[in-house]
Each structure stands twice: as C-alpha cells, then as structure tokens.
Amino acid sequence: MTELLRREIALVCAPEHAFRVFTDNVDLWWPRGHRRFRDGALRFDGGRLIDRGPDGTEWTMAEVLDHVPPTRLHLAWFPGSPNAPTDVEVGFVGGLGGTQVTIIHRPLSPASAEVWPARVGTFWTGWEAVGDALARWIEQHKEE
C-alpha cells in the first residue's frame, strides 16, 4: 500500500477567509522557493494553478479537479512528476476560533504510485513550507 502524506494547519480565521486566501491570494503568501519561477506570479486561472515567469512563460503547477468554496479544493499536482501527476486535496473545516486546513497528498495513477516513494519526502518538505507560509500570512493579515 502506498503511503499517504497528510499535513494539518491551524489558522485563526473563518473557513471562507482561509479558502479565499489560499485561492485568490496564492501569489502573496506561497513561498518563492517553492515555485518554478522564483520571480514569477502564481494564480488560479481557468481551472489551473499557473506559475508565470517574468518573461511570460507559463507552467501549470496543478489542474483543479474540484472546487467547492469554502470547504474543498482538489488538484492534480504536477511538481515533482509532471508526467505522472499526484493527487492533492485541501480541506477547510471551521471550528472554535478558526479553521483546520488539511492537505492530503497521494498518488493519482499507477505511474505516480511508481515515483511516489522517491518523491514523498520532497512533497512533505514542500507542504511544510507552504503550510507555515500560509499560517504566517493569515496571522499577519487578519480578517477585515
């Protein structure tokens, strides 16, 4: 059986705000070192998460498989294995005083299951950095 990556992030905001920041403001908080183009612009556009380089070159980081604001975002994830995308689900659940964001990352196909053992450590490190950056940004930019 293939190992599942699970990362949880506690945010001090409502799920609607957390979801909006994750999707609409992704370029403001996503770590520069976890993009294809360090000086590029990251955005959700046309059912894709796109990283656009300073020269206009675009790279698709993910395709949106399902988008249910403010509770769920489901992605086919290309970093690490562009020819064998993996599966990322991001859930947003409200509770007392905030939102629990849960990221579940796993293989999407037999091809991605084949490369998963070599990639899961890199994915874990990446989601740690992304989760920490999201929490910092939410903390520094309180809901209005």
Concise summary:
This protein is an alpha+beta fold. Helix content is 31%, strand content 38%. The chain has a single domain (5-140), classed as START domain (Alpha-D-Glucose-1,6-Bisphosphate, Chain A, domain 4, 2-Layer Sandwich), CATH 3.30.530.
Describe it.
- By secondary structure, the protein is α+β, with helices and mostly antiparallel strands.
- The protein has a single domain, classed as Alpha-D-Glucose-1,6-Bisphosphate, Chain A, domain 4.
- It contains three helices and seven strands.
- The protein has helices spanning 15-24, 26-29, 110-140, and strands spanning 5-11, 41-45, 48-52, 58-68, 72-77, 86-95, 98-107.
- Strands 1-7-6-5-4-3-2 form a seven-stranded antiparallel sheet.
Describe this protein with a few key phrases.
31% helix; alpha+beta; 3 helices; 7 strands; 144 residues; seven-stranded antiparallel beta sheet; single chain; Alpha-D-Glucose-1,6-Bisphosphate, Chain A, domain 4
- How many β-strands, per DSSP? 7
Poorly predicted regions: none
Strand content: 35-45%
Output the structural class.
Answer: alpha+beta
Query: Residue-averaged pLDDT, rounded?
Result: 93
Question: Can you tell me the CATH superfamily?
Answer: START domain
Largest sheet: 7 strands, antiparallel
Number of helices: 3
First-last Cα distance: 45 Å
Largest sheet: spatial strand order:
1-7-6-5-4-3-2
- Return the string of H and E elements: EHHEEEEEEH
Kindly identify the CATH topology: Alpha-D-Glucose-1,6-Bisphosphate, Chain A, domain 4
Helix content: 25-40%
The first-level CATH class name:
Alpha Beta
Name given to the CATH architecture: 2-Layer Sandwich
Shape: globular
Radius of gyration: 15 Å
How many discrete structural domains? 1
